[in-house]
Amino acid sequence: MIEVNFDGIVGPTHNYAGLSIGNRASFANAGAVSSPRLAALQGVGKMRRMLAMGLGQGVFLPHVRPNTDWLRTLGFNGSDTETLASAWMSDRALVANAMSASAMWTANAATVSPAPDTRDGLCHLSVANLSTMPHRASEAGQTERQLRLAFPDPRFFRIHAPLPAAFGDEGAANFMRIAPRSGGPAVEMFVYGEGQSGGFPSRQHRTASEAVARRHGLSPARSLVVRQSDAAIAAGAFHNDVVAVANGHVLFAHEAAFADPAALYAALAALVPDVVTIEVPADRVSLDTAIRTYLFNSQLVTMPDGGMTLVLPGEAQENAAVWAWLNELIAQGGPIDRLEVVDVRESMRNGGGPACLRLRVQVDADALAAIDPRFLLNETVCARLEQVITQEWPESIAPEELGDPRLWDRCARARSALTEALGFGTDEL
Question: In 3D, which of 286, 234, 290, 296 has the Cα closest to residue 259?
Fold first, then answer.
């Protein structure tokens, strides 16, 4: 199996409107001036680093923003400019939602079950409905369109439409896969929340997790539906990938990530005898620190030589407690044998680290060849992305500029320049 990480390009409307309830970083930076150009270049820089490490790298494009079609469903009408101006006069928060660049966090785009795990031997992708937050709930249609374009061959892929909005589904941010190192069938883990914790909503519903497992044709015996701890949600772990990450036969998690960790670890050990669970104790790295530094929102990846690397945000290195614990982990000689630090500070300020920016898709060589090559990266394409972003993306966006028609026009032109540079037709995306 070959793993390709599909990262979202940070869109030209990247701004700090503080729309994400329960996301501490999003709220803390609400109202600040954002740097869309720098954010997008940092994202491409991370993709370049992954390519240099010998890993497969893909890309998803920013969604159409401003989302005037969404505003029209709310009763605003006229030309795009008239629709936006009317909405701005009526309710500025609606325009902020319509300008959101949150589709860059492609860990929320879908849940992916690789072909070896499914009954029909296809790679299944279920588009997330993201129904809890208005600015994200509007993404599903454009996400589905990109997924169907990127993975078009029915011999290898099956794309599922979003679940009904009543059942909140946040995609791969609440999903993990554990595969035995010795070979054999994997275990797919779906993590959900219950009710509200600390006044914050639980975004992933148990019913949604169970539905995705059924529609993907997973073996019930090798599917675990696991409850996230209330403490984690209340502390700001709005998705499970803020407190846990898995790769291969390794689960890396905070002590307070799950409601019943002992039961989970026992179940995993029974299904995957060679599983390695690395639990970070709260007395070394507090839950608050883990969430502030996005220690677990790192990419845990298998290198071409078989070792594992933890790709961390710079904030993790800057925290003395986190960095000391990580270096002790490496010194112990376990399965994680390398730390790689990336700068995605602009994404982090809006509540998304390295793992939020990518959707993992595992395929064999034949399925990889069937992916639309326009969604796959190499150094030449990265350079093309950087050129367009440098020329077209706004350098900064202040909150009051969200109502400026000149910004609306510039962001629309920037996206068009990007899609053209990558070879997409006007009507494809």
Answer: 234
Domain count, the chain: 1
| CB atoms near residue 367 (< 10 Å) | 22
Q: Are strands 2-8 and 358-363 parallel, antiparallel or unpaired?
A: antiparallel
239 belongs to the catalytic site: yes
Assess if residue 155 is contained within a domain: yes
Strand partners of residue 4: 56, 361
Could you report how far apart the first and last alpha carbons of the chain are, in Å?
29
DSSP strand pairing (299-302 vs 308-313): antiparallel
Regarding pTM above 0.70, the answer is yes
How do the pLDDT tens digits run along the chain, 429 residues long?
Answer: 999 999 999 999 999 986 766 666 566 767 789 999 999 999 999 999 999 999 999 999 999 999 999 999 999 999 999 999 999 999 999 999 999 999 999 999 999 999 999 999 999 999 999 998 899 999 999 999 999 999 999 999 999 999 999 999 999 999 999 999 988 899 999 999 976 656 667 789 999 999 999 999 999 999 999 999 999 998 888 899 999 999 999 999 999 999 999 999 999 999 999 999 999 999 999 999 999 999 999 999 999 999 999 999 999 999 999 999 999 999 999 999 999 999 999 998 887 899 999 999 999 999 999 999 999 999 999 999 999 999 999 999 999 999 999 999 999 999 999 999 999 988 888
Which residue range is the domain that position 222 belongs to?
2-65+100-421
> Which position among 14, 315, 356, 392 bears the catalytic label?
356
CATH code, 363 = 3.75.10.20
Respond yes or no: is residue 356 known to be catalytic: yes
Residue 14 is assigned to a structural domain of this protein: yes
**Residue 344 — φ and ψ, nearest 5°?**
-130, 45
**Rounded to 5 degrees, what are φ and ψ at 23?**
-95, 105
426 within some domain: no
CA distance 222 to 218: 7
Active-site position among 14, 124, 216, 239: 239
Catalytic pick among 139, 144, 170, 315: 170
Please check whether residue 222 is in contact with residue 185, taking contact to mean a CB–CB distance below 8 angstroms: yes
Sign of CA dihedral 413, 414, 418, 424: negative
Residue 161 in any domain: the answer is yes
